[in-house]
Write the structure tokens for this entry.
Amino acid sequence: MNLDYAGLFRALAPETAIVVGALAVLGVDLTLLRGRSLATRMNVAALISALSVLVAFMLNGTCPCGRCWVGASGPVFGGALMFDSLANATRGGILGLVLLTIGVSTGARINRNPAEYLSILLFATVGFLLMAAAQQLLVAFLSLELASLSLYILAGFDKTRPDSAEAGLKYFLFGGMSAAFLLFGFSLLYGLTGSIELNHVADGLRHQGISPLLIVALVMVIVAFGFKAAAAPFHLWAPDAYQGAPTPSAALIASASKLAGIVFFARLLWSGLGFSAGNVSYAFTSVGWLPIVAVLSGVSMFVGNLAALAQTNVRRLLAYSAISHAGILLLGLIAVSRNGTSPIFYYATTYGIATAGAFGVIGVLERQGGCDSISDLAGLYRRSPLLAGCLMVFILSLAGVPPLAGFFGKFYVFAATLKLAGLAGVAGWLTILAILFSAVALYYYMVVLKQALVVAPAKDATPVRVPIAAAVTLVLAAIAIVAFGIWPSVLLGAV
Amino acid sequence: MNVGLNEYILLSVLLFVIGFFGVLLRKNTLVIYMCLELMLIASTLALVAFSRFNGRMDGNVFVFFILTVAAAEVAVGLAIIVALFRKRLTVQVEELNSLKN
């Protein structure tokens, strides 16, 4: 094993920048800002965090000039990490989504410990970044746990509200169980192949057929994946976590964590366990993990869309919409063998921007009054035209209306699955189901927009004051949704 | 009796199943949490057994990291349970149902 520490340090320069940023946030808050107002501390902490994320963004990937000091491509540190174009693009996408979340947190209700909150958010980011490049079971497990443990804290961070602690606990218990499943799957894979390197695992599985032990291992890995992606029937944590967690935490769980998780499992399943994938392109499926993923995808679309119809709470509605989007992401995962990872990367990134933006709008409203049920959005176009316009872009993108990015995301995923074998098999039928459910989804998204854009405001409603940083973030996110819809090749070409 | 790989794996699967049903059936958050730890320990046992029978060290190294992660998980999990108990004065899962539509 070739251990190149200098190469490792160069490759992990973004992570280093973020850890330094997290420590700087804590240090500045504890020394220079003692006794200052909460708003000042929040803004300074957000500024330092955003700067460190920007530095990490610039250090990420290889510079085209080829002479620069930072950056890496190919396997690093004896193959423990893999910096291919997917990893670099995903790391860029994660950093962008984290930046959006930091902007959202400046507009949301301020908790009592802003510096601690943002530094834990940055530690979660380090976990996401490593998840995108992990090519070895040990690094994969550690990066996933670093991200998950930070997210549990972020979900339960608001100590003044019992809801937040309950959301944190439910997220923690489900997450801990899925981590145990993943770990048991990993130990069985290690036993079957004698290695924790993903490419040696693949070599080991190439020469052996499907054994009962391998099926158990595959099921366990898929259960963990289903939890991370919030796919039904492992979705039970999602509505509670989205409803109870502080708004920026919910935005992070729905955006950057989703993107990191889907890329993490796409790498694990296709480059590690690709030889036991099975086949779902035709009516007669063959044994492997693809049939299980296909079932999860169908159930998620079914449960997510139908349950979303009955919701009156905005956050729970976004949670069930997340579950239905997870169904489409799993559908995209099925098509990776034929069309590569660019459709799911594009879909997960643009979905993340739209949903984090929607949470950002909810966060600003929550700070001034509250935004629990959908009817609290009534008359938003009068109270704040800016928020109403941004919310319209995000919700329409989630619904998949052209020319926004959400439409092209769905389009590329559906085109990829139909290229497998047309309508000859399960993948094709699921695509038809997904298209039908997109029409159902349009209804509940329109209910939200109707409240925000058509219904008159309540009599005692006051104009909403939007903090500048949050306003800039939301407008930039809305512009990104439109721009990625018009020029999808910017994201598609990055992978 | 000669204890081989199969016995170790059987024991580890047994521990995992006990932990899993504990998580599903018990009502006290702390007991659920202990059962989660049991599931992690079951994987640890399997890794050590496989590592010994494969004649490689990487499984053993994996176990060190798992134990560290489990310790971190204790810190986070108990902190969340304490925060919840301060607000709700209960750790029974059937009473934690304030998040509803």
In short: The longest helix of chain A spans residues 162-193.
